[in-house]
Amino acid sequence: MLYPQRLGQFTREHADTVAALLCGLLLLFGWFALHLGWLGLAFLLLPAAYVIGGYESAREGLTTLFKEKELDVDLLMIVAAIGAASLGLWRREYHLIIDGAILILIFAISSALEGYAMARTERSIRSLMSLTPDTARVLLQGREEEIPISQLKVGDQIVVKPGELIPTDGIILSGYSTLNQAAITGESLPVEKTVGEEVFAGTLNGYGALQIKVHKPAQSSLIQRVIRLVEQAQTEAPPSQEFIDRFEKGYAKVIVVAGILLATLPPFLWGWDWETTIYRALTFLVVASPCALMAAIMPTLLSGIANGARQGILFKNGAQLEKIGKVRAIAFDKTGTLTIGQVQVFQVASASKYTKDDVLKAAASIEASSEHPIGKAIVQAAGDLDWIAAMQVQAIPGQGIVGIAQEQQVIVGNTIFLQKYVTNSPEELREIVQSREQEGKTVVWVAKNPTPNPSPQARRGAEVMGVIAIADEVRVEAAATISRLKKLGVEQIVMLTGDNEETAHSVAKAVGIDRVYAQLLPEDKLNVIRRLQQQYQTVAMVGDGINDAPALAQASVGIAMGVSGSDVALETADIVLMADRLEKIAVAMHLGRRSQLIVKQNIVVALSFIMLLLIGNFLGNINLPIGVIGHEGSTVLVTLSGLRLLK
């Protein structure tokens, strides 16, 4: 019973190959029968070879003709083959029927080879689908129970044993282990994880058992977002492919018109006999078809997307792989991009009538509602203190945050933001702020207004409580990445930040960036990107926060940090660095440039083959089978060339 099932499965999975094999066998036996003079058997076997080998191409060609009212190269192949057979029957030169069958056979073999070549890229991409298990081991009333991933809810506690895949994103509640994140982030070495740290679905647990709390819906996990984006990338054609698709539709019509003229005019103009004329016209239909040109782009770009995914670089579509190779200027956000974004409170200074704890508690009550790294650092520093989360919290990206805590308005933000609420600030605090900012640290002011919802006239009646200095660490790889990008020929590298001038220039100097734009609002970053585009055309923006989203959307190529990046940034960006590793930007640029080089090579090869075959046809130096071999051979060659990007 198993054998027929396996045979049926093999036939379904390798339908093109089976069709090509049957077509070849029927052609061989038909030729043999024809050679022996068994015309009845030959006329039975050869039509069967035509039908089996050409059925799929004929179906696709006719579907395109009737539904889209467009001519297809598949249909041209079938017309040429049937034309050769008809000419053979008309002239009783039955070798022409063999020529048509050979055309069908080579076309079927080519389709099978292209299918296998593209399946390799497909497997590289679809391997993402197998990275998460179907079920999770959930703790219910102290007992472990396996449930489908789709039934997991936020707050569920799951158990992951050594050697198992993490089923969904979550926070470790207990346990310590090393996790292999290579499939998600491209990191080659296992990463140590312990209580309080985030783990990602699809990563492989090491030697320790972990108890994990689900903190987001399973469908929102990092790996699920990756899968959705990669599926989207496969279905969206880049501009170059869209141009080729439009070109093919017009080109096919030109071929048909030219084929009709070649099949009718030469006997009157040059005295050709009708057999030679029709045969040359049929050969023209084959060799002039742009199959190789159609295969010049998408296999290359899909291979590049698969290669990038394996290295922790997620291209949302092929257009971005094309653009990243043309980038002439790059803008970097500072916090969370050039720096690790895991900032810590370095110093707390209070005004005379307040304590440091008062300052921290007031700031933490507001920042508890913020996703900004500075807010998280303040909340972490105030963890042992007794404070209550504020209400009516409103964040102003790039400036600060306001809310109501214990019936008082609390303001946390930079110097410019504070000036909207405070008339004056203590001299000793201004000196501390100036000193810390010169050291490259970020400083936020904390103030409060006794009136919860002050009128516009009373708005500036807030009183300064103190300042909090925040220290962020520059990414280890940042300086090397900037140096590498300059060597790759990037003409302009700038830093955009909402931070103050001193902090911005301190970080820029450490990583090797000469041009800095500081104290920017989101719309200011957007305007800088627009000015860069006017000068350099193709501009990339690298960021991670909500305030980077407008600039990421405006940039020719938006690049987001996958781990530290906000959901808005990840959705807006065109490329995501899954491991937050800046050096992958240079890898992405190299992939983009290689893809462009290979596409250009493929187009040259495709057009060269078409020209050579056309010249050979008019000179009478090639017959129909040779034309088919040249045409299909160039298509397979171009497809295999595109797969070089898989390595």
Task: Name a few traits of the molecule.
647 residues; alpha+beta; 7-stranded mixed β-sheet; 6-stranded antiparallel β-sheet; 25 helices; 53% helix
List the helices and strands and how they pair.
Layout: H1 2-13, H2 15-36, H3 39-67, H4 73-91, H5 95-126, E1 135-140, E2 143-148, E3 157-160, E4 170-174, E5 177-180, H6 182-185, E6 191-193, E7 198-199, E8 204-205, E9 210-214, H7 222-235, H8 239-264, H9 266-269, H10 274-287, H11 291-294, H12 298-310, E10 313-315, H13 318-324, E11 329-333, H14 334-338, E12 344-350, H15 356-367, H16 373-381, E13 391-396, E14 400-405, E15 408-413, H17 415-418, H18 427-438, E16 442-449, E17 463-471, H19 478-487, E18 492-496, H20 501-511, E19 515-517, H21 522-536, E20 539-543, H22 549-554, E21 557-561, H23 567-572, E22 575-577, H24 584-619, H25 624-642
Parallel strand pairs: 11-18, 11-20, 18-19, 20-21, 21-22
Antiparallel strand pairs: 1-2, 3-9, 4-7, 4-9, 5-6, 5-8, 10-22, 12-17, 13-14, 14-15, 15-16, 16-17
Helix pairs in contact: 2-3, 2-5, 3-4, 3-5, 4-5, 4-10, 5-12, 5-25, 8-10, 10-24, 10-25, 12-24, 12-25, 13-24, 15-16, 24-25
